[in-house]
Amino acid sequence: MKRKQIIWAIILFAGFTACKKDVSDNFVIYTNNAMNDTVWARNLPTNAAIYSLFDSISPQPMVDSFDIAKGDTLRFAKNIEIIFPANSLAGPIGVTLSGKIKVEVQSLLSKGDMIKAMKSSTNYAALFETVGTFCIKASKNGQELSLLPSTNIKLRFLDPDDNPKTSLHVFAGKESYQVPSWGYDMDFTWLKTIDGSTINIWTKYGSGPNKGYEIVSKNLRWIAAGKHMDSTVSSAKLFAILPPNYTNKNTVAFASFNDSKTVVQLNADYSSRSFSAKNIPLQKKITIVTITKIGNTFYLGKRNVDDIGNIGVYNILPEKKSLKNILDFVEGL
What we know:
Elements: H1 2-18, H2 49-57, E1 62-67, E2 72-76, E3 80-84, E4 89-90, E5 100-108, H3 111-116, E6 122-123, E7 126-140, E8 143-144, E9 146-147, E10 153-158, E11 169-174, E12 189-192, E13 198-203, E14 211-217, E15 221-228, E16 235-241, E17 251-257, E18 263-269, E19 274-281, E20 286-294, E21 297-305, E22 312-315, E23 319-321, H4 323-331
Parallel strand pairs: 16-22
Antiparallel strand pairs: 1-5, 2-3, 3-10, 4-9, 5-7, 6-7, 7-8, 7-15, 10-14, 11-12, 11-15, 13-14, 16-19, 17-18, 17-20, 18-19, 20-21, 21-23
């Protein structure tokens, strides 16, 4: 029954949009117009607009360096510190490291940051609330390095409310088999670490907010701290339905929770030509956000949902926006 209702909702929405002026501009048919492309892809082509969209909105990493023989405490914007012990990194087999090591850090401390980086706070289908998400890369002459098995780094950052949460876990990013350097990874998810990584309360002495977190991590690249949401509450599958030319090749969709730092990506549902996510708790207040790039033009879709029902099917009508407008909106979530 639920599947039939979803299918009927999609059919009705398709009929509704066919009878209205296309909100993305007048729909003029001519060959090679990206606005006319309504085809969904089972496998994304390498030239899909979603990759260009990622490049346009993804937060840029912060960069610093340290001497591998000495180690160092690197301090970045947003009160982020990373402690690298001396001689803690490994390169290719047979290569001895010396001199300066380049460190790049991408910090996702807000729900807007998560959306811009196209990252979801989900452990497969299980949802969790995050207090901070980071990608840390160390490299030498363009060759990415890893931590030696016997070492760790310490990642420190402040809690914006000066009231750190407790009973948190460390999560590590599970990336595609062919790991992209920074680009969009559609198969990305999080795994709770079992390698001895820990998280503790950290106090930074000085003026202003001075309480936060210290993650002791056994790995580099994607690291997050958070706790799973209650999986025993009733939940539903959420669907976002867009006009036909908003496809999985040019659009991403997210559900941003109003009462927690939780962002869930709605994955492309090829069979229904919609975007969907499982395990959305009932009666939750969320904001559905879609971002699209067609040609060189950007579109923003948004819908406030005050109460997720048993069948969460929602129609989204995106509007043309400047890139700045879109980034400002997601930062305000």
